[in-house]
Amino acid sequence: MNKPEMTDAGLSVSTTVVGVDETGATRELQLVGERALTIYVDKQEIVTLMTIGSHPEILTLGYLKNQGFFESLDEISVVQVDWQTESVAVVTQTESSDFTEQMSRRTVTTGCGQGTVFGRLMDKLQNIHLPQNTILQSTLYALLDSVKAHNEVYKKAGAVHGCALYTGDELEIFVEDVGRHNAVDAIAGYMWLNDISGDNKVFYTTGRLTSEMVIKVAQMGISTLLSRSGATQMGLDMAKMSGVTLISRSRGKHFMVLNGAENIEFDAQEV
Amino acid sequence: MNKPEMTDAGLSVSTTVVGVDETGATRELQLVGERALTIYVDKQEIVTLMTIGSHPEILTLGYLKNQGFFESLDEISVVQVDWQTESVAVVTQTESSDFTEQMSRRTVTTGCGQGTVFGRLMDKLQNIHLPQNTILQSTLYALLDSVKAHNEVYKKAGAVHGCALYTGDELEIFVEDVGRHNAVDAIAGYMWLNDISGDNKVFYTTGRLTSEMVIKVAQMGISTLLSRSGATQMGLDMAKMSGVTLISRSRGKHFMVLNGAENIEFDAQEV
Question: How many other C-beta atoms are found inside a 10 Å radius of the C-beta of residue B126?
Answer without folding.
Answer: 9
